[in-house]
Amino acid sequence: MTAGAGLPMVGPMFAAILLSALAMSLIVGARYLLASGAFALATRHRRPGLYTGLDRQIRREIAWSLASALIYGAPAGIVAWGWQAHGWTLVYADVHAFPLWYLPLSVLLYLAAHDTWFYWTHRWMHRPRPFRIAHAVHHASRPPTAWAAMSFHPWEAVTGAVVIPALVFLIPIHVGALGVVLTIMTVMGVSNHMGWEMFPRRMVRGPAGRWLITASHHQRHHERYACNYGLYFRFWDRLCGTDAGLGSFREAA
Ligand SMILES: [Zn+2]
Ligand SMILES: [Zn+2]
């Protein structure tokens, strides 16, 4: 009854964590395939021929994205296990635990925090060495397609995978609001790369578009590299003088 006494417990706990991580990887992978598949289908209808000749690139985008899904599942699975088993995180299920006005505010706080993290890590990854090591994979898509949403080198995937699992320890959020955050994250990640603008021109070129990032803005990042680093909002780009306006889309082949 010495050092080995606690060991039999380690096996099942490790198995539970591993299972939770694998389940999360599967969910993230399925979510990617569904979302990217849906927008690729929409592209076929709205811009027939836009992805002509990109088959090899699309296969690469899907392979990197599925590898990223595996990585995204690890921290998410560990935190989900801790939430279930030990009540970790500030995620709450009772909608009245906080005032109702906090629901939209919490969504906004998550998006702003994620955007800030993304802007600065993304900008750092455009320095020559980190670019070569971690970020070149994402820019190998020229032009990106709806399948490029999670096309990241594993190092870049790690920087993205830790954001939400870290935020749930810092900012309280209702489980439904967290679902909204994850949905916005998924839809914008896919639509920003699909090669055409789905939002009305009036919105993109109007006052809202001056602050919100849609496909037109991220397109310019993929054209020119050293600008438009943001994820959801143009705030940091505008503040730091890295905003180069909206890009243009290629026509269908
Ligand atoms: Zn991109
Ligand atoms: Zn980049």
Give a topology summary.
Layout: H1 7-46, H2 55-86, E1 91-92, H3 102-124, H4 128-139, H5 154-161, H6 163-167, E2 173-174, H7 175-191, H8 201-204, H9 215-224, H10 235-239
Parallel strand pairs: 1-2
Bound molecules: zinc ion (2 copies).
Overview of the molecule:
The model has no long low-confidence stretch (mean pLDDT 94). Helix content is 62%, strand content 2%. It has a two-stranded parallel sheet. It has one domain. The protein is an all-alpha fold and 253 residues long. The longest helix has 40 residues, at 7-46. Bound molecules: zinc ion (2 copies). Residues 122, 126, 135, 138-139, 221 line the site of one zinc ion.
Write a compact overview of the structure shown:
This protein is an all-alpha fold. The protein has helices at residues 7-46, 55-86, 102-124, 128-139, 154-161, 163-167, 175-191, 201-204, 215-224, 235-239, and strands at 91-92, 173-174. Keywords: Membrane, Transmembrane, Transmembrane helix.
Name its key features.
mainly alpha, two-stranded parallel ribbon, Sterol desaturase, 253 residues, 10 helices, globular, Sterol_Desaturase_Related, binds zinc ion, 62% helix
